[in-house]
Amino acid sequence: MSIKVENITHIYNEQMPYETTALDHVSVEIESGEFVGIIGHTGSGKSTFIQHLNGLLKPKSGKIYINGIDITEKKVKAPEIRQKVGLVFQYPEYQLFEETVFKDIAFGPSNLGLPQNEIEQRVYEALSLVGLDYREVTDKSPFDLSGGQKRRVAIAGVIAMKPEVLILDEPTAGLDPKGHKEILDMIKKMHKKEKNTIILVSHNMGDIAELSDRIIVMEKGKVVLTGSPKEVFKNADYIESIGLGLPPAMILMRMLKQRGKHVYTDILTIDQAEKQILNLLRSK
C-alpha cells in the first residue's frame, strides 16, 4: 500500500497565544512494502505526522493519498482508513483492557462483524506473528504477562485488523535489552513474512539504521533529509547539529579513525563494525 503526502500543514491552537505549527508543508512518498524509519528530536513533528496517516488528525491544508484515495476528503470514513493503516502508540500495553488475551486481540476484528471462525484465525495468526504461543497465552489475563509480552499482545491487537500499513511509534520504549531485542526481531520477522509497509518512529539510531530501507529526518515540522541509511548518516555533522545522535557502530568507528586506525566510518550496524574490527586485528 503506497502513501503520498502532498504539502500538508498542521497547526495546534490556531489563532491563540500558544499557536504552534507542528507540520509545515510536508511532502513525502512511501512505496508499498517499504520499511521507513522516521527520526527527529522531541517536537520535530514525528508523532503529529504519523497521526495524519490513519486519519486521527486532519491537516489544515494539503492532501494525503493512501493507495490513490485522498483520505482528507470528508466522504472518506475514518474506520475504513484505520483498518488499512494500523497505528501502535508508545506503551500500547496501557491500552489493554479485556479479561483475556484472546478477547483483547479479538476486539477489533469483532467490531468488523466477522464470523467467529475468522476472528479466531486472526487472533491465532496475530499471536504467531508476534512470537507468542496461542495455546499458552490465549486464556490468560494480559495483565499477568511480562512487560514485553504485554506489548506483543497490544501489537497483535493491531495486526489482527490486517492493516496494509503498520506504524510503530517507539515500540521498544521502556523495555529492558532482552525485551528490546525481542520486539525488534519480531518486527523484522513480520515485515519479511507479510511484506507490508512499515513505518518506524524511534530515537534509537542503531535500530533505525539496521531496519530501515529509507529514513525520513524531521526538524521543526519539516522534512529536512531523506534517503537510505548510508545516505542520511553520511551527513553526520548535520544530524548532530539538529540534536540527533548517530548509530553506536558509527560512533565507535569514528573514534577508532580518530585514533589512527584504518577503518571505514560509514559503518552503521554492530555486525558490520564487528567484521571491520576483526579485519583490522587480522591485518596486524
Short structural description:
The protein is α/β, with parallel strands linked by helices and 284 residues long. It has 12 helices and 10 strands.
Keywords:
284 residues, alpha/beta, Rossmann fold, 2 domains, six-stranded mixed beta sheet, four-stranded antiparallel beta sheet
Topology:
Layout: E1 3-12, E2 20-30, E3 35-39, H1 46-53, E4 61-66, E5 69-70, H2 78-84, E6 85-88, H3 101-111, H4 116-129, H5 134-137, H6 147-159, E7 165-169, H7 177-194, E8 197-201, H8 205-211, E9 214-219, E10 222-227, H9 229-233, H10 236-241, H11 248-258, H12 270-282
Parallel strand pairs: 3-8, 3-9, 6-7, 7-8
Antiparallel strand pairs: 1-2, 1-4, 4-5, 9-10
Helix pairs in contact: 3-4, 3-6, 4-6, 6-7
Structural write-up:
The chain is of the alpha/beta class. It folds into 2 domains: 3-244, Rossmann fold, CATH 3.40.50.300; 247-284, no CATH class. Helices cover 41% and strands 21% of the residues. It has helices at residues 46-53, 78-84, 101-111, 116-129, 134-137, 147-159, 177-194, 205-211, 229-233, 236-241, 248-258, 270-282, and strands at 3-12, 20-30, 35-39, 61-66, 69-70, 85-88, 165-169, 197-201, 214-219, 222-227. The strands form 2 sheets. The chain has a 6-stranded mixed beta sheet with strand order 6-7-8-3-9-10, sandwiched between helices. Strands 2-1-4-5 form a 4-stranded antiparallel beta sheet, with helices on one face. Helix 3 (101-111) crosses helix 4 and helix 6 (147-159) packs parallel to helix 7. The longest helix is centred in the middle third of the chain and has 18 residues, at 177-194. It is globular, with a radius of gyration of 20 Å. The model has no long low-confidence stretch (mean pLDDT 93).
